[in-house]
Structure formats: structure tokens, C-alpha cells
Amino acid sequence: MEEADLRRLLSLMATSDDQAGKDLFALSESVLKRFFFRLCRCPFLSDDLVQDTYLKLWTYRKKFTGSGSARGYVFTIALNEWRQRHARNKRHENAMTEYRNNWQGDLGRSPIGPVESDESIRRINEAISSLPAGQKEVLVLHRFERICCREIANMLDISAKTVESRLRLAIEKLTAKLSVVEERS
User: Distances in Å between the alpha carbon of 86 and those of 68, 90, 101, 160, 180?
Assistant: First the structure.
């Protein structure tokens, strides 16, 4: 997602340009799906969250002023959608955990048979899923979506030092969890 393209499309959407909305969706759908999947580990929920994000982008299309980062604007709305959905589904956490675990097992299988790299990916995904929400958000935005700490701080309305601290804690926890798994193997 190029900043200039996003900025242009968001500006056109502000004028109720339907084609700009369709183009924005085409440009960023796969990036947002990947982002949501890394947060929730559920492909169906990821698809729903992408749709909800675009509904919000369209609903609030006139609020984009163009003064900040267009990419940050899109990801802020996406992150808020995930947080709202996460909060609504908190009471169903046990059912979702079971569902995620079932899907995760299916996604880790190789048609050739179990492969060590598939097992490593599964362990990493489990470790990321077990992180506290704030650390998981920062880790996914920084490491997978390649958003800088300053921009994440603006998106989350926290200081850059807090972002760095959450990122450090997330990496420490992942390292500890994955090294314990390695010792058991």
C-alpha cells in the first residue's frame, strides 16, 4: 500500500467517489486480511473485520483531512475495529480459543506430511496469540506490517517509548516461550 495512492483514494472517497472506494478496497484488502489474521488467527473473522473496516472508512470518509499518514489512518480504523470486536467477543473467549486451535491445526498441515517448519510456524503463532493485546498489536504492526514505532504511537495514541517498551516485552516473552518449547523438544 503506497502512501500516495492511499492519500489520493481517501481524498476521492471524501467526495463520495464510489470507484475510489472500490479501488481502495482492491489496493489494501490483502494487506488488511493479513493484518487481521495475524491478530486473530481466524480467516473468517479476518474477512469480517476487513468488511467492517471498509464500512467505517466509507462512513467516515469525510473525516480524513489529509494532514496525517493515510496508511496510519487506515490501520487506526482497522485496529479500532479489531479492538471493538475483541471486546464484544470477550465473553465467548473459550469457544473462540477452541475454534482457533482447530483451525490452526488445519493450517499447519502439509500435504506431504508433517514438516518441522510447519511445527515451528504453529509454535510461533501460538506464542504470538498468547501475548497480551497491547503487546500483540504493537508486534504485529511493527514486525509484520513494517510500521515504525512513531507511527504506531500516533495510531494507538500512546508515546513512542511505550510502543518500544511493549515491543521489547513482546519479543522477550516470545523468546522465552519459544526457548522453553525448544528445550522440551
Answer: 26, 6, 17, 24, 28
pLDDT digits (tens, 9 = 90+) for 7-16: 999 999 999 9
- What digits encode the pLDDT tens for the residues 69-97? 899 999 999 999 998 887 776 655 555 45
Domain stops at, among 108, 126, 155: 108
Judgement on whether residues 92 and 174 belong to the same structural domain of the protein: no
Query: How far apart, in Å, are the Cα atoms of 74 and each of 9, 56, 68, 81, 141?
Result: 11, 10, 11, 11, 12
Q: Measured between alpha carbons, how far is 107 from 120 in angstroms, rounded to an integer?
A: 13
Residues 123 and 82 in one domain: no
pTM of the model: 0.64
Boundary of a domain, candidates 108, 140, 158: 108
Q: Rounded to whole angstroms, what are the CA distances from 15 to 42, 75, 79?
A: 34, 21, 25
Give me the chain's average pLDDT, please.
83
* C-beta separation of 139 from 156 below 8 A: no
